[in-house]
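Recall the central idea of this unit: under ordinary conditions, the amino acid sequence of a chain determines the structure it adopts. In this exercise we apply that idea directly, starting from the sequence alone.
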Amino acid sequence: MHGFSVYLGQPINKSYIRHMVDIGYSTIFTSVQIPEEDESTKYRYLEELLAYLANDTLTYMIDINPSLLNRSFFQFLKQHTSAEFIIRIDHSTSIEVIREIVDNGFLCCLNASIISESLLHQLNAQLDSFDRLCYCHNYYPRPDTGLTASYVHSQNKRILKYNANANIYAFIAGTTKRGPLYKGLPTVEVTRDVHPVVSAQLLLDHHTQHVIIGDPSFEPDQAQLLITAIRDRHFKLPITLYDEQCEYILQNQHTVRVDNPEHVIRSQEARHYCQSDIQPNFIKMRTYGAITVDNQLNGRYQGELQLIKQPLPQHPHINVVGHVAKHDLPLIECLRPNDTFEFNIISRS
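Accordingly, the structure predicted from this sequence is:
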């Protein structure tokens, strides 16, 4: 249920929204309590958004102040029967507010960034079930105010102690930043200016289940790369090709071996793809991001393909056949056992 954000301070960007939904983002985050937005138009734009996507099965997370919850608001949402609504309470959380949301048929989302042990203990004692609760961290527009990864980890573990099946959301920055600061809307400070897949993987590694793009827009190619990586666990790596005799091996899809070592990523299939002898060629230092294939001098290991994670010396049995593009080098650290990857040859050398 990874998602993106739509803000209600201006007319909705239908083409952007359509693209994001079509490629697989199934959660839309929005807010009705942003100070810079016009109170007279935000609900009209929300209605326009819901009407536009009436034929899509989507989840909407609506950030709202508890003081704005009333019968009229609940009835407004209930008109849209194809949608699932999550009502996120940023602060002033109470058992009464949670019950009001749940009793009206909606999921209630609590602020994962500030939730306390005492509140979770209280919920455990007074609620029959956690099934109608989820959790979402804050995003942080101002630089240097975002959370640390270790804090997100500890908050998520606290939640999971009481609710082992909890759905926890958090944010990464987009490519078109939201004002008034235009510095991105991430949850974790160190992800503010890094590759989006790396940002998302950090959240997933720290027990966050769902990633939301916090800013109002995201470049189409980056959006596709991100959803394919974090939903499908498939990575497309742009590369420069050096050794054309190995091109046919690189044109296949590869799987990261389960027993993957520390210094390299090994392809599970590459040796099976090898159909002819590979002559020694491009014997040189194996730098970070290099793609190597073992040549015929390595006997039964001929065709072995590796992505280099730590510089290694040259070896006469190993051809350096290509290199991952500089911008996408961070993707290498995101690959996990059983993930799949493929190469996109963008240049030859």
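The longest strand covers residues 340-348.
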